[in-house]
Predict the 3D structure of the following.
Amino acid sequence: MEQGISIRAIGGGRVKKEETIQALAQELEDVKNFMDSVIQSIGSGIIITGMNDTITYINRAGERLSGYSREDVINKPFSIFALREKQSDIHAFFDNPDDHTTRREGWMRRKDHTEFPVGFSMNDHVNVKGERIGKIVIFRDLTNVYKIQEEILRMDRLVSLGKLASGIAHELRNPLAGIKTTAQALSEEMPKDDPKREYLNRITREIDRLNDLLKTFFSFAKPQELNLVYCHIREVINEIIPFLFKEIADQGIRFNESYDPELPKIKVDKAQMHQAFLNLFLNAIQAMPRGGELKIEVTPTTLQSSDGLKQNFVKIIISDTGKGIPPHIIQKIFDPFFTTKPKGIGLGLSITYQIIKKHGGTIKVESEWGKGTSFIINLPEALENP
Ligand SMILES: Nc1ncnc2c1ncn2[C@@H]1O[C@H](COP(=O)(O)OP(=O)(O)OP(=O)(O)O)[C@@H](O)[C@H]1O
Ligand SMILES: [Mg+2]
């Protein structure tokens, strides 16, 4: 009887222990699942390697950013990512080379062998005894960060050049006005049939030309307030096409336009938009001295910003079949005063860029040397006043 009780007691203890173990195992499983879902839902890529630098783990973001699947990389050497650090003087100065946890910047290679910029940190992976058993690499794609940095730099350059241009333009305007009035006074005193009158006319013409140039400088330097109106992009384009008819006809250019019937309205400063598109059309025409095709295609599009918000845009593609832009200069074409034309000032595209940006839009270029160029502009949809 006693034995029976004790056996039952022992038996009861075993059942309890098993229950506890089961509960602990469940808890452990829950914690594991929780950790796993946290790690999987993190936007940064995580790669863990063993001592021999072979990959033992990659999270979902790591797969997405690198283009590799888990199966592709497990047991492969970490070197397949070709991670290399960017040389940065500032970082080298501040960072402690012995500190393995420092955030660094560099380049990583995707499965398709393209490289992308990353911000990364590399930490030792240690076991419970504190021994090093590999490393943990956490990385983020910096492509968009770099793009934004570049845009800020470009805007910065535009602003400082704008200030310089406005200073020079201002200083030149008064003496020019003085020269013009003097020339006019001289002309009034001169007999009508004096052959020297032609010299004065030439002076006046050149002064007018300089004044026009200064006006361009001013519009670049002191961007005017936006006088926004609701309209259709087609209206804006139609208002400038007549100014281009002569060039288009003279150079034997075919002009094609296509507008999607479902375009949203936009809110723009028409005068500034005229200037922005005129610059693009003139460049296209100048790129086709022996004819070709100038095309404008307008469609609605939806874009997602980096914070996941969707916005409707009007997408305008202006393309030509001209000489194209060589790859080594394509980075510079939006810079003020960059020109490859003997009589160019190089302000056309930087003004266009500024105007599109001010309207909350984007502009980019695609070009193939010898085949042609396309400028792709996105302007945000505007909702009509309530
Ligand atoms: N459609 C195009 N096809 C080929 N090259 C182009 C095209 N658009 C721009 N470019 C290149 O970009 C450069 C800069 O253009 P941008 O309009 O800013 O200045 P520009 O046309 O040279 O002078 P301007 O101030 O008179 O406009 C041009 O000199 C040309 O080399
Ligand atoms: Mg131009």
Q: What stands out?
A: The radius of gyration is 33 Å.
